């Protein structure tokens, strides 16, 4: 457990159909309170403009497009993400070692300016049954462990996994290897389509380094109250 270290601010998943609504929420937040995640829906609807603006305003933006393609294409896409000034970018570990290595090598020339590069292991919406249906007959935790090893060997900065696997990831890598965990659900909130979930406090206790939270904040009656409650549960004031 990383109790000796203050938790990093949560990452708010801006999964909105209307870019103006995403911006309206961002206007009520501050970079000291949280980081921002832009995923497929907002990016396809709004494009890179808002990202450039938020980065210029001092926000840490995680561009979550989960690249998964041939190495050349993914490397070029990661470089394009870096050119937007984002703080973190992700690929799918299932794209393989050559793809992840190409992504890392595309970012390396940027030195300290480069974004963190992490790999999604097994989506938090999967359980053992749905994994089996796509041909992965191992338990989610075993599949995550295999993909963590591949990601670590490829030299990436961390993984996206469920908080249920965070402790095992830390044990197999090192404490600075990021364990970015979606599927965070405060006690009593709806799981929605997530299957491998944990509460914020339990996720931190299990060794998650970066908590990703979407609907429990963005669909709350008052997103600011929900964010402050989340921060309180994380031990942040
Ligand atoms: O890479 C991600 O961010 C991600 C990986 C994963 O395995 N599961 C997962 O839910 N996510 C993202 O994390 C966010 C979770 O949102 P909520 O389920 O609304 O809290 C969504 O934007 C997902 O796209």
TrEMBL record:
Single GO term (MF): orotidine-5'-phosphate decarboxylase activity
Record SMART domains: OMPdecase
Enzyme Commission number(s): 4.1.1.23
Catalytic reaction annotation: orotidine 5'-phosphate + H(+) = UMP + CO2
Leader sequence segment: none
Keyword Metal-binding: no
Ranges of residues in domain Orotidine 5'-phosphate decarboxylase: 9-230
Active-site residues, as the UniProt record annotates them: 66
Keyword tRNA processing: no
Family the entry assigns: Belongs to the OMP decarboxylase family. Type 1 subfamily.
Subunit architecture: Homodimer.
Listed name of the protein: Orotidine 5'-phosphate decarboxylase
Organism: Spiribacter pallidus
Gene: pyrF
């Amino acid at each position: 457990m990383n109790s000796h270290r203050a938790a990093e601010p949560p990452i708010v998943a801006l999964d909105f159909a209307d870019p103006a609504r995403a911006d309206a929420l961002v206007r009520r937040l501050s970079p000291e309170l949280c980081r921002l995640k832009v995923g497929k829906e907002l990016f396809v609807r709004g494009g890179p403009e808002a990202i450039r603006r938020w980065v210029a305003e001092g926000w840490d933006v995680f561009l979550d497009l989960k690249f998964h393609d041939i190495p050349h294409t993914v490397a070029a896409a990661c470089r394009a993400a870096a050119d937007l000034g984002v703080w973190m970018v992700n690929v799918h570990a299932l794209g393989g070692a050559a793809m992840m290595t190409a992504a890392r090598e595309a970012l390396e020339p940027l030195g300290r300016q480069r974004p963190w590069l992490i790999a999604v292991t097994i989506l938090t919406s999967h359980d053992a049954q749905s994994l089996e249906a796509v041909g992965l007959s191992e338990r989610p935790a075993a599949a995550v462990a295999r993909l963590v090893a591949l990601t670590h060997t490829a030299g990436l900065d961390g993984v996206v996994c469920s908080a249920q696997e965070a402790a095992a990831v830390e044990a197999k890598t090192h404490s600075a290897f990021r364990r970015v965990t979606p599927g965070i659900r405060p006690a009593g909130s709806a799981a929605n389509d997530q299957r491998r979930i944990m509460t914020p406090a339990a996720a931190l206790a299990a060794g998650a380094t970066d908590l990703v939270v979407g609907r429990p904040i963005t669909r709350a009656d008052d997103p600011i109250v929900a964010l402050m409650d989340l921060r309180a549960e994380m031990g942040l004031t």
